[in-house]
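Structure (tokenized):
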């Protein structure tokens, strides 16, 4: 039985799948099995795997009709046999110390069920967004200020943003000291706490930088909810509800925005593009079930719900769903009447009665601000911007022309 089972769901990722697999093979700890679940790919994903990894006995390939990432992850977990379970997506890359560091923690702490590290989103050209530094230090505190919440205030005298969420910080113990001494990162700590209530702000944990104890998963008996595009949020919530979270302030995984050759990805991330609104609705449903439905009289939660409904209206407008946007904005104004930007957006939507025109104006202005922001932060080059524009243009051409 391997020490660690790594679950890799994939769909049409011929441009990135080898990078993900190689990052598992290049781990400093080699006691693993890799379960690749192809979720009905129509490109050469399977061909690349069978050609390049025919001699890799630790790689197990499963093929199924398309069920979505939830179904693929569930298949991998059911087929796995490791003492611990880790996760990687096919546009991700494990850093070499990932499995060694996190399994060392769980081996040294048999009473703990979960450990995770940082996930850095790689935009190329050495530009990264460092999750969950940015969420805990910037994004979520900004929302907390908007709704008048003090939940994410720092303890008196502290400047460490992670202590907005976690209750304790301690140095890395003997179990991991030799591993981190060889890494180029500084100020690596172990943070611990019960953080289920803080989950109301959004993601505090995702699958790729996380390792769980198999026995704890079997005790919970919880799988990824199929059909829910924010399925990892609901899955992790069950762990956060029951267990202490152990968080290492060191990157263990990259999420890539570009293919290894520098080109844009052939498949968008599920939370962007055409599925962004559906993902937003799934997140709203998750949060309603976890928090809002159980505490309808909690005024702080109501204001947070109003803010989330306002943000969901933006996603609806981007998809040309004017009626849905107006519905979300109406709910937002009822739950958070003191949010002037919701009233401003409602007024703008009412001034443009045609859904298609509203969508065009909104997406054009958003695209321009997005591009200017990316260029200003050096997260995209002029060449990459041109590639994105050409892909968007080609996607709108008639099939006979684009082929």
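Design, position by position:
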């Amino acid at each position: 039985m391997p020490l660690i089972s790594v679950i890799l769901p994939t769909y049409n990722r011929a441009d990135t799948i080898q990078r993900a697999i190689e990052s598992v093979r290049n781990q400093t700890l080699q006691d693993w099995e890799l379960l690749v679940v192809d979720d009905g790919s129509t490109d050469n994903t399977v061909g690349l795997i069978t050609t390049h990894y025919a001699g890799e006995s630790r790689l197990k390939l499963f093929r199924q009709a398309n069920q979505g990432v939830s179904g693929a992850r569930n298949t991998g977990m059911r087929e796995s046999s490791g003492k611990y379970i880790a996760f990687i997506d096919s546009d991700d890359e494990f850093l070499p110390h990932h499995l060694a560091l996190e399994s060392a923690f769980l081996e040294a702490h048999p009473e703990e069920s979960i450990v995770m590290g940082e996930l850095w989103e790689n935009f190329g050209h050495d530009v990264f967004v460092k999750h969950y530094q940015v969420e805990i230090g910037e994004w979520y505190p900004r929302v907390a200020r908007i709704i008048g919440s003090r939940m994410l205030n720092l303890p008196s005298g502290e400047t460490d943003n992670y202590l907005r969420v976690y209750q304790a910080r301690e140095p890395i113990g003997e179990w991991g000291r030799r591993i981190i001494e060889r890494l180029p990162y500084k100020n690596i700590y172990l943070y611990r706490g019960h953080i289920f209530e803080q989950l109301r702000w959004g993601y505090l944990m995702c699958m790729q930088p996380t390792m769980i104890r198999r026995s704890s998963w079997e005790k919970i008996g919880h799988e990824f909810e199929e059909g829910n595009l924010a399925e990892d949020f609901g899955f992790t919530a069950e762990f956060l509800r029951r267990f202490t979270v152990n968080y290492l302030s060191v990157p263990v995984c990259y999420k890539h925005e570009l293919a290894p050759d520098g080109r844009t990805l052939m498949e968008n991330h599920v939370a962007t593009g055409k599925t962004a609104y559906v993902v937003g609705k799934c997140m709203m449903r998750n949060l309603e079930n976890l928090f809002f439905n159980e505490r309808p009289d909690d005024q702080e939660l109501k204001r947070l719900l109003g803010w989330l409904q306002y943000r969901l209206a933006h996603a609806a407008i981007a998809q040309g769903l004017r009626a849905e946007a107006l519905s979300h904005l109406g709910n937002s104004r009822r739950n958070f009447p003191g949010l002037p930007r919701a009233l401003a957006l409602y007024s703008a939507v009412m001034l443009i009665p045609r859904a298609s025109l509203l969508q065009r104006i909104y997406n054009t202005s958003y695209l321009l601000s997005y591009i200017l922001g990316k260029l200003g932060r050096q997260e995209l080059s002029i060449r990459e911007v041109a590639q994105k524009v050409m892909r968007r243009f080609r996607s709108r051409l008639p099939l006979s022309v684009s082929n």
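Reviewer-requested clarification: Residues 371 and 385 are 7 Å apart (CA to CA). The chain has 15 helices and eleven strands.
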